[in-house]
Amino acid sequence: MYREFIVPDDQEILEAIGEWPETEEDGEARCLTLQGEEQECILLSYDALGRSVRVRWRNREGKETLDIFREGATRMSVHNGKGVTYLSLEFYVGECAGKMEIQVFPHFTLRDQLLMV
């Protein structure tokens, strides 16, 4: 069963995390560059039509320490409050469902789970 990938509009993302999503060169995907403590960086790319998400975490030397690509995205939301800001991504593929949370402030953390349903 096809499920639409619902994403917040650019203004909502800007208001919650202070970054405006840019359009990638191919014209389909959107990209957020999130700057963290000590020159760390998270690059989040998402394609609403392709229902895909890619998260790349670079350390202060600019070396990629994490690269996750996942298809079957169904919802992206932004949360800001109580001193914490994070993005939440939900996935549903066949018999598996999952959620990825990327905390942006006060520091970067990433939690990811994909389970059989």
What structural keywords apply?
5-stranded antiparallel sheet, 117 residues, 7% helix, globular
Describe the structure.
The chain has one helix at residues 10-17; strands at 22-23, 30-35, 41-47, 52-58, 64-71, 73-81, 84-93, 96-105, 109-116. It is mainly beta and 117 residues long. Strands 1-2-3-4-5 form a 5-stranded antiparallel beta sheet, with no helix packed on it. The model has no long low-confidence stretch (mean pLDDT 94).
Low-confidence stretches: none
Overall outline:
globular
Which sequence of strands runs across the widest sheet?
A: 1-2-3-4-5
Number of strands: 9
Helix content: under 10%
What does the largest sheet look like? 5 strands, antiparallel
State the order of secondary-structure elements, H for helix, E for strand.
HEEEEEEEEE
Query: What structural class results from the helix and strand content?
Result: mainly beta
- Terminus-to-terminus distance: 15 Å
As a whole number of angstroms, the C-alpha radius of gyration is 14 Å
Strand content: over 45%
Number of helices: 1
Give the averaged pLDDT, no decimals. 94
How are the SSEs placed, and which strands pair?
Blueprint: H1 10-17, E1 22-23, E2 30-35, E3 41-47, E4 52-58, E5 64-71, E6 73-81, E7 84-93, E8 96-105, E9 109-116
Antiparallel strand pairs: 1-2, 2-3, 3-4, 4-5, 6-7, 7-8, 8-9
